[in-house]
Write a structure and sequence with these properties.
Blueprint lengths: L1 H4 L2 E3 L6 E9 L1 H5 L9 E11 L3 E15 L6 E17 L3 E4 L2 E5 L4 E3 L1 H10 L12 H29 L1 H10 L1
Parallel strand pairs: 5-7
Antiparallel strand pairs: 1-8, 2-3, 3-4, 4-5, 6-7
Length: 177
């Protein structure tokens, strides 16, 4: 619980205007979440917070690397991560999520914990196909396409040959013409 509090931003006594925060994300951050894909990493998060009477706008800028397991070789490798994202917190009568980047918070909310937001943003940056950098992904995708395309051509050629050989089909083709 103490580790989660490191990611609290106390907004209650903040004056209107811009405020900047910096957070270091390490292995202890990923231990807060039960996830098999992300367990290690070293990232820096810069948060710019713009507070007004009716809302809070947060800009997230995160850079660093997370440790992933290659889907092909099961080797561990560092995957670089660099992204920018925005989140808007509006004041309202009940807490709710209006969209993926707009949330409603109560007027008397004292702190916003951004740990879950950071974890979700980082998780969105993980590729579906996790390949070690030593495997060239562009060559692989072209080879896969060529294999599928060439095998479907061969199958259609074989089917045409079979149709020409069978005399029953030839008789039906004559009737059709």
């Amino acid at each position: 619980m103490k580790a989660r509090r490191e990611f609290d931003i106390h907004i209650y006594k903040l004056s209107n205007g811009e405020h900047n925060y910096q957070f270091d994300i390490s292995d202890s951050f990923f231990e807060l979440f039960e996830n098999e894909i992300l367990s290690k990493g070293k990232l820096n998060a810069n948060i710019s917070l713009q507070k007004s009477d009716s809302m809070i706008q947060m800009g997230f800028q995160v850079e660093g690397a997370v440790e992933l397991t290659c889907d092909r070789s099961l080797d561990l490798f560092d995957h670089p991560i660099s992204f920018e994202s925005r989140m808007i917190f509006k004041y309202g009568d009940e807490e709710q999520e209006l969209s993926e980047d707009v949330m409603v918070i109560l007027k008397d909310t004292q702190t916003i914990n951004i740990a879950d937001l950071l974890f979700e943003f980082i998780g969105l940056e993980i590729p579906m196909k996790k390949l070690h950098p030593r495997f060239d992904q562009e060559e692989e995708s072209e080879d896969d396409f060529l294999m599928i395309y060439s095998s479907s051509e061969e199958e259609s050629d074989e089917q045409e040959e079979e149709q020409d050989v069978d005399p029953r089909w030839a008789a039906l083709k004559k009737l059709k013409e």
